[in-house]
Each structure stands twice: as C-alpha cells, then as structure tokens.
Write a structure and sequence with these properties.
By secondary structure, the chain is an alpha+beta fold. Helices cover 65% and strands 14% of the residues.
Length: 204
C-alpha cells in the first residue's frame, strides 16, 4: 500500500486508526471507503495527472497515425507506438505500464491492425460497397439477392452516423423505444382480454 500513501499521504490517516503496534483498524465503515477515497485531494490530483498523461500520448500518437501513407509498415507502426507507450508510462505512480500496453495490443488485434493494413494497401480511401445477401437453391443457383445497404471497411457506418446524424439517430431510438413500449402494452392488453374470454367461456 506504500505506493498509494505516496500519492495521497493524508489518506492513510483518514482511513485507518491505530490498534496496537503493527496493526491498524478501519476508521470508516466499509460502505464509506470508496466515498472517502474518491474526493481525497491526492486522488483528485492523481486523476488530473493521469488524464494529462493520456492526452499527451494520444495527441502524439494521433499525429503519427494521421501521417500514415500507402505502403506504410503496420508491424513497424505498432512496435513504435507500443515502445513509446511503455516509455511514456515508466515511473508513473499507480500505473502498471504493461497493463496499459496490453490494452493497446488488444485494441490493435481487434480493430486497429485491420485499419492500418487497409491504409498500407490503398492509402486513405474510404471505399464503400453494397452488402448483398444471396439466397441459393439446393443446386447452388442464385434465386434471390437482397440489398442490405452499404458499408465501408475503413470508416464504419456507425462512425458516420454518430458524427453527422446524431440528432436523427437519437430521434429514431426514441421512436423505437416508444414503439416497443406500445407493443408491450398491446401484448399485455391482448393477454388480459384472452384470459377474460376464457373465464367467460368457462362460466358458461
């Protein structure tokens, strides 16, 4: 716990009280531990420092990534970003730099490497294409094609919607929620009506 007390030296005296040599007791209830820690001045200062550290690395990395061109080398890019991240978080209090590094590598494996390879192949070309659902018969012949809309590998549709059509998307979601609520009410009304009908038929 010493690393925590170095970040927030007053917190130890707030959370604990002396018992006997070598032992301490909680000075607050278990329910009050988190509410006591979060507003502590040292913790707030640590959060601000961490946010600045994240912002500094993000800005530096964003400039590098925006400068990528066709024929760049994705493996070299992630190696340089990862090494820079490890160096950036070396000696940062309460931050395990290899945990941060692993977050970056997980994101690289899940999403980022595909984007980098697309840029390496074609540059910053956001090529759209249609999603065609094909239905075939037992002989393998196409009997129906359904256009399911457009998509783009480099710039996902969700990013376009969130950036340029946020208000419309919010309105659609509100209407969908209202529709679900009305449908649930109608379903409940229908069930009650059927139960009453069964009761009346049974009474006859």
């Amino acid at each position: 716990m010493q690393s925590y007390w170095e970040v927030c030296p007053q917190l130890r005296a707030t959370l604990f009280k002396a018992n006997r040599p070598g032992y301490l007791d909680l000075a607050v209830s278990k329910q009050a531990i988190k509410p006591t820690i979060l507003p502590a001045p040292g913790i707030r200062h640590f959060h601000r420092q961490h946010e600045r550290a994240v912002a500094d690395w993000q800005q530096r990395s964003k400039d590098i990534l925006k400068s990528l061109q066709a024929d760049c080398h994705p493996k070299t890019i992630i190696a340089e970003l990862a090494e820079d991240l490890l160096a950036h978080y070396t000696a940062k209090p309460l931050i395990a730099k290899y945990d941060v590094y692993q977050h970056l590598m997980d994101y690289w494996a899940a999403t980022m490497q595909d984007d980098c390879y697309l840029i390496a192949a074609d540059g910053w070309k956001a090529m759209t294409y249609r999603i065609i659902e094909v239905k075939k018969n037992k002989d393998g012949k196409t009997i129906k094609e359904t256009d399911k809309g457009w998509t783009c590998d480099l710039v996902p549709k969700a990013l376009i919607v969130n950036r340029y059509f946020e208000a419309q998307q919010t309105a659609i979601r509100e209407q969908e929620a209202e529709l679900e609520n009305i449908s649930a009410q109608l379903t409940g009304t229908g069930r009650r009506t059927r139960r009453r009908r069964r009761c009346l038929l049974g009474a006859e």
